[in-house]
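Hi support team,

I've been running sequence recovery on a batch of backbones for a student project. Most finish fine, but this one hangs at about 90% for roughly twenty minutes before it completes. I'm not sure whether the input is malformed or the queue is just slow. I've pasted the C-alpha cells below so you can try to reproduce it. Let me know if you need the job ID as well.

Thanks,
M.K.
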C-alpha cells in the first residue's frame, strides 16, 4: 500500500495504476537526462545534498520536520531524490517543495514543474518507506540556479522509541546541459525517545561542524554599514546548534541559536571588512572560523565636465560633452548622460558622449557617475546653441546693417545714372 500526495495537499490512497504511472514518469525523466543529453557529468565535486532534521531527538507522538538541502551547487536545473526512513519508528505526514516561498534565498525556482511528488508507506513490506520528489523548471526554461537552499521539507510523526537513519539511496542533480552534477550525500540520524528531549542520551559525534558565510548575498561592495549575513552550516551527526561572530577572529559575540540570516553592522571606517563566524554542534564541538569579506564605500565619486564650458555658445547642432570622473573607493562602475531633463543614457565607462540634433537656444547637459558600491554624484552645465542660418545674433546684426545700407547704395546708383544722362 502507498499514499499519493497530490498537488492540492491531500494524501490519497493509491492504486496499482498510479504506481505504474509514477514509475513510468520517473523512468522517463532518467532516460531524458541520459539518452537525450548524454551521460557526461559536471566536473564540480563541491555540491552536497544532505538531510537536515530541525532536531535530532524527538519524543514519541511528536512531529519532526526534516529539510532536504543543497549547498555549493552550480547551474542546477532539475533534481530527483528518494528519502528512505523506518516506517516502524516514523510516519510521513507531509512534504512541501520549496518553490512557493517569498524568501528567494531558501529555494531554487520561482516557477517549477513537479514530475513526481509521492510518499510511500512500506511498499515492500520490510519496514522501509520513502519520500519521492522530482522537480524541474517549466519546459523551455534553461536557467540554472546556483549557491545553496532547501529543496523540500518533510514532516514525520514519531511512533516508537529507537534510532533510525534518513538516507538517499536514489538521487540525481541535473544541470542546464542535461548532464548529471557530481555531488556528495550527507544522511542523518534521528533518535526517538519516550522521555523529554533534554534527558535523551547524546549522539556519538567526534566530527566538528562545517559551513560558511556570505555578506550582503556575496556582494563585493556595499555603501551601507548595516548588512545581512547569509549563513550555512551542517553537521553529519549531532546537528548544528549554535553560532557566534567576530570582526577580528579574536573578540567574539556570545553563542546564539543557529539561524540562516543574521543582521550585522560592519566596523567603522571605509575599506575592506571581514566578518567571522564559528559554529557549534549539539555535541559541543566547535567548527573552524569561517569568514566573508566586503568593501565598505560610502563616499560618492567625483565628476567634472570639461566641455562644454558653462555659458558657452556652440554654433553647431552637434557637439561632444566631455568629463573627468574618479572614485578612490570601490571604483567607477558607469556614467550616464541626459539633456534638458530627458531620460538618462548609460554610456558605460566612456568619458565623452556626442550630443546631436540640438535645437537653437539654451540647453542643460547632466552627467552622473556611479561607483561599484552604488554611490553616485551628478553635475551639469548650461550652454547655448546658435546653429540655424535664420537665427542667431550674427545674422540679426547683418539684417540690421543691410536694412540701413541698402537704401544708401540705391540712392548712390540713381544719382550716378542721372548724371550720365545729362
Amino acid at each position: 500500500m502507498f499514499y499519493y500526495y497530490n498537488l492540492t495537499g491531500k494524501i490519497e490512497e493509491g492504486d496499482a495504476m498510479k504506481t505504474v504511472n509514477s514509475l513510468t514518469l520517473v523512468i522517463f525523466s532518467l532516460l531524458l537526462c541520459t539518452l537525450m543529453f548524454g551521460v557526461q557529468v559536471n566536473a564540480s565535486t563541491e555540491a552536497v545534498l544532505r538531510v537536515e532534521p530541525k532536531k535530532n531527538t524527538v519524543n514519541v507522538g511528536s512531529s519532526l520536520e526534516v529539510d532536504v538541502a543543497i549547498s555549493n551547487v552550480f547551474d542546477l536545473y532539475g533534481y530527483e531524490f528518494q528519502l528512505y526512513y523506518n516506517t516502524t519508528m516514523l510516519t510521513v505526514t507531509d512534504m512541501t517543495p520549496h518553490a512557493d516561498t517569498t524568501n528567494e534565498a531558501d529555494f531554487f525556482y520561482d516557477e517549477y514543474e513537479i514530475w513526481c511528488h509521492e510518499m510511500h508507506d512500506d511498499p515492500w513490506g520490510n519496514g522501509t518507506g520513502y519520500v519521492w520528489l522530482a522537480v524541474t523548471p517549466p519546459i523551455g526554461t534553461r536557467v540554472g540556479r546556483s549557491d545553496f537552499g532547501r529543496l523540500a521539507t518533510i514532516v514525520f510523526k514519531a511512533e516508537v522509541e529507537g534510532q533510525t537513519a534518513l538516507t538517499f539511496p536514489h538521487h540525481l542533480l541535473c544541470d542546464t546541459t542535461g548532464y548529471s552534477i557530481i555531488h556528495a550525500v550527507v544522511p542523518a540520524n534521528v533518535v526517538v525517545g519516550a522521555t523529554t528531549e533534554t534527558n535523551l542520551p547524546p549522539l556519538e559525534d567526534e566530527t566538528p561542524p562545517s559551513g560558511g558565510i556570505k555578506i550582503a548575498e556575496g556582494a563585493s561592495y556595499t555603501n551601507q554599514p548595516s548588512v545581512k549575513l547569509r549563513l550555512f552550516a551542517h553537521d553529519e551527526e549531532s546537528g548544528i546548534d549554535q553560532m557566534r561572530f567576530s570582526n577580528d577572529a579574536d573578540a567574539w559575540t556570545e553563542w546564539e541559536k543557529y539561524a540562516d540570516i543574521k543582521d550585522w553592522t560592519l566596523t567603522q571606517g571605509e575599506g575592506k571588512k571581514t566578518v567571522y563566524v564559528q559554529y557549534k554542534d549539539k555535541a559541543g564541538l566547535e567548527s573552524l572560523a569561517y569568514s566573508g569579506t566586503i568593501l565598505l564605500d560610502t563616499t560618492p565619486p567625483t565628476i567634472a565636465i570639461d566641455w562644454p564650458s558653462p555659458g558657452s555658445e556652440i554654433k553647431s547642432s552637434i557637439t561632444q560633452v566631455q568629463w573627468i570622473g574618479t572614485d578612490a573607493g570601490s571604483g567607477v562602475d558607469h556614467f550616464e548622460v541626459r539633456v534638458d531633463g530627458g531620460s538618462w543614457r548609460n554610456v558605460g565607462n566612456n568619458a565623452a558622449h556626442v550630443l546631436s540634433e540640438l535645437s537653437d537656444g539654451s540647453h542643460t547637459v547632466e552627467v552622473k557617475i556611479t561607483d561599484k558600491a552604488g554611490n553616485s554624484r551628478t553635475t551639469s552645465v548650461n550652454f547655448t546653441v546658435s546653429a540655424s542660418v535664420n537665427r542667431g545674433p550674427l545674422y540679426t546684426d547683418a539684417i540690421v546693417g543691410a536694412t540701413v545700407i541698402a537704401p544708401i547704395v540705391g540712392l548712390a546708383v540713381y544719382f550716378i545714372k542721372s548724371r550720365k544722362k545729362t
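--
Follow-up from support: It reproduced on our side and the slowdown came from queue contention, not your input. Residues 21 and 323 are 67 Å apart (CA to CA). No action needed from you.
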